[in-house]
Amino acid sequence: MTTIQTQLDAVRHRIRVACHDAGRASDAVTLLAVSKTFCADAVQAAYAAGQTAFGENYIQEAVEKITALKHLPLQWHCIGPIQSNKTRLVAEHFDWVHTVDRLKIAQRLSEQRPEGLPPLQVCIQVNVDGGPTKSGVTPDDALSLAREVAQLPRLHLRGLMCIPEPASDFVAACAIFKRARGLFDLLNVEGLKLDTLSMGMSADMEAAIASGSTMVRVGSAVFGDRHSSSVVGRSGGLQPKIV
Ligand SMILES: *Cc1c(COP(=O)(O)O)cnc(C)c1O
User: Which of 233, 137, 114 is nearest to 183 (CA)?
Assistant: First the structure.
């Protein structure tokens, strides 16, 4: 077994246990493996261990990997901030985008999505805890943005995504994640047909799953520490970026 395979199995186990503890079906939560800063070989090792959905933050780095791995049936999710001048690359190369937080970006993605590809699957990023990152729409503005995004022809609105600040403990983390779940449920009551709530990372996936996440984005617990140099499959050509 490779290290990545062992770590992937451990993450899958954590997800199953968290689903069980929350009284949720064991397949209620999808694992997105966050491969930022790791090379194509690491993605390939995860694929060999049965993982097909991968998340990337840095568009240029991602496009290189996506192109190098074109021969594999992988699903690529953009989970990093998107500037206007990068929307075309995102629309042409990714399957999903989790970080839509303004209409202008959504409109560009819709206009630039190539005809030959299925609609781009999108989540709206919500700043649920008023955190200082500034990314994400406020909860108050989420419904109107969701309604506008849902009208765009080449996008398929799937749900919401959030990246709260690290919480002090499990209960505090759940309190924040439950706000996101409440908003997700409200938007569905309002008639939007959302099936994806993207929240939870290596450190807080249990709290996210207990609070109703349907997709966890897990990087270091699958691929190793992005800060250490002793990582298997660390990208040689790309500078590791610390986030
Ligand atoms: C890096 C990143 C992750 C994964 O973080 P880990 O702590 O390595 O699991 C998840 N979501 C986003 C948006 C990220 O940037």
Answer: 137
* Domain around 31: 3-240
CATH number (domain holding residue 7): 3.20.20.10
Quick: pLDDT tens for 47-93: 999 999 999 999 999 999 999 999 999 999 999 999 999 999 999 99
Q: Looking at residues 87-104, what average pLDDT do you find?
A: 98
Q: How far is the CA of 9 from the centre of ligand 1 (A)?
A: 18
Amino acid at site 78:
C
CA distances (Å), origin 214, targets 174, 208, 211, 243: 14, 9, 10, 24
Q: Which atom of ligand 1 is nearest to the CA of 220?
A: 8
CA–CA distance, 24 with 189 (Å, rounded to integer) = 21
Identify the pLDDT of residue 152: 98
115 Cα to the center of ligand 1, angstroms = 31
Query: Per DSSP, which regions of 51-203 are E strands?
Result: 53-56, 75-78, 96-100, 120-125, 155-161, 196-198
Domain count, the chain: 1
Report whether residue 205 contacts ligand 1, using a CB cutoff of 6 Å.
no
pLDDT tens-place string over residues 136-192: 999 999 999 999 999 999 999 999 999 999 999 999 999 999 999 999 999 999 999
Question: Of 35, 31, 136, 140, which is closest to residue 82 (Cα–Cα)?
Answer: 136
Cα(217) to ligand 1 centroid in Å equals 6
Ligand 1 mutation pick, 31, 79, 97, 222, max ligand atoms within 8 A of CB: 79
